[in-house]
């Protein structure tokens, strides 16, 4: 009975996805947000956000203007009653004439799964609360890349806030500060209401590079402000790492650091894939910034070299879904590999439509490639609900109607359950042959 009901739901979803949005009229662009200056106590925590930091641990990050403020987090399961204290680390950075505040990173835990915690940063200031992800299915991810700081960004964040999700995934291009370091501060304040309550897991985009020849290195602000669990996953760089949530293994790759077969990232990826246990984490997801499958005229071919180097590894490992940003529009593919449909390939989804100031990429290649299922140049966000070891529900919500409209949706069956990686011994043999080859 349950199987029949699931089949009916999938049929309805597929029909809905194919017919929606034919007469949609897109609103005009919105301007950048204005952030009025407000004086705060120098020790008050600002730009608070959290991220996963290994099994049952969370990293709390914030900035204070008081250089003597401690990197301390008090936390507990009852408001105002902090039964645990954690000490962390702090740093700061200079960029041309800009000097950052004191940036704190403190790991708390071990924490119980699916539990609300109340916490305070630096021994004073407001109380925040977070909820840890569940230990098992179902688990829901909100997905939005290329956010920026415009009216559309605010709309995206408002709609994500209505979603009952566990973790936010951001495949690159966060603040669009573009060398103006104070814009990192305003972005931190903008996302704090959401990012302080649910973990934000991010990877870098081209707008995070901010390098100036002979003057400033790449990713200075990004690495200082948005520390991810790279060390916990055996990576040597904050630009690529992996983590696990419930029964999902997620790999965050760097489109703007070396990725060829001789690179550290390539070697790390091979080692990480070999550690994946599909019995424990039947779902395998990958995020990176520049999409590999893109039928929009914007950024054509920019992911090709990374795809040539790494797609065979991901295919051998049986990656289920690949999420990307960069192109300011939405697109979803069939399961695809080596440029054509393949039932054992990954579903590629581009969600670089969070609300950036550069606007939408409205021109597509005609005719639509065979592997491309749905594409639309609108702002929005995605929601991926992993229901169980075999089925996940993906939906994309166009939000520039000023209300969340579900424009595309589909049930996705895991490769573990489809037969592509069902023979574990054969799969391991094929994977190890590829991953262990020099």
TrEMBL record:
Matches recorded under CDD domains: MPP_PAPs
Classification via InterPro entries: Calcineurin-like_PHP, Metallo-depent_PP-like, MPP_PAP, PAPs-like, PAPs_C, PAPs_N, Purple_acid_Pase-like_N
Residues of the signal peptide: 1-22
Cofactor or coenzyme needed: Fe cation; Zn(2+)
GO molecular function terms noted in the UniProt entry: acid phosphatase activity; metal ion binding
All residue ranges annotated as the Calcineurin-like phosphoesterase domain in the record: 140-330
Boundaries of every Purple acid phosphatase N-terminal domain copy: 45-132
Annotated ranges, domain Purple acid phosphatase C-terminal: 346-402
EC numbers on record: 3.1.3.2
Assigned protein family: Belongs to the metallophosphoesterase superfamily. Purple acid phosphatase family.
Protein name: Purple acid phosphatase
């Amino acid at each position: 009975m349950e199987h029949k009901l699931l089949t009916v739901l999938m049929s309805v979803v597929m029909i809905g996805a194919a017919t929606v949005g034919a007469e949609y009229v897109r609103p005009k662009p919105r301007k950048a947000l204005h952030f009025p200056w407000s004086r705060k106590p120098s020790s008050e925590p600002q730009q608070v956000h959290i991220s996963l930091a290994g099994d049952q641990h969370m990293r709390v990050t914030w900035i204070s203007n008081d250089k003597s403020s401690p990197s301390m987090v008090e936390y507990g399961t009852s408001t105002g009653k902090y039964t645990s204290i954690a000490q962390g680390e702090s740093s700061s950075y200079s960029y041309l004439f800009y000097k950052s505040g004191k940036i704190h990173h403190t790991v708390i835990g071990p924490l119980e799964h699916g539990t609300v915690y109340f916490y305070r940063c630096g021994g004073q200031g407001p109380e925040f609360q977070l909820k840890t992800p569940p230990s098992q299915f179902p688990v829901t991810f909100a997905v939005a890349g290329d956010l920026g700081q415009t009216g559309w960004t605010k709309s995206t964040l408002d709609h994500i806030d209505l979603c009952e999700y566990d973790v936010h995934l951001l495949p690159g291009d966060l603040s669009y500060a573009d060398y103006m370091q104070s814009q990192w501060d305003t972005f931190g304040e903008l996302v704090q209401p959401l990012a302080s309550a649910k973990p934000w897991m991010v990877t870098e985009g081209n707008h995070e590079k901010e390098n100036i020849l002979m003057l400033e290195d790449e990713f200075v602000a990004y690495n200082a402000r948005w520390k991810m669990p790279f060390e916990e996953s055996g990576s040597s760089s904050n630009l690529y790492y992996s983590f696990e949530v419930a029964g999902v293994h997620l790999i965050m790759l760097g489109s703007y650091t070396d990725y060829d077969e001789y690179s550290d990232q390539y070697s790390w990826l091979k080692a990480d894939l070999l550690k994946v246990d599909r019995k424990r984490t039947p779902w395998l997801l990958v995020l990176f910034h520049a999409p590999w499958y893109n039928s929009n005229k914007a950024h054509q071919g920019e992911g090709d070299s990374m795809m040539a180097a790494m797609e065979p590894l991901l295919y051998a490992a049986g990656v289920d879904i690949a999420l990307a940003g960069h192109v300011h529009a939405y697109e979803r593919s069939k399961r695809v590999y080596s440029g054509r449909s393949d039932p054992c390939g990954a579903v590629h989804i581009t969600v670089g439509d969070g609300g950036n100031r550069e606007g939408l990429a409205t021109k597509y290649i005609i005719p639509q490639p065979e592997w491309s299922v749905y594409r639309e140049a609108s702002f929005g966000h995605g929601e991926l609900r992993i229901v169980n070891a075999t089925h996940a529900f993906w939906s994309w919500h166009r939000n520039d109607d000023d209300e969340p409209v579900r424009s595309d949706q589909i049930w996705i069956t895991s490769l573990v359950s489809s037969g592509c990686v069902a023979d574990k011994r054969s799969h391991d043999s094929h994977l190890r042959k590829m991953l262990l080859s020099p």
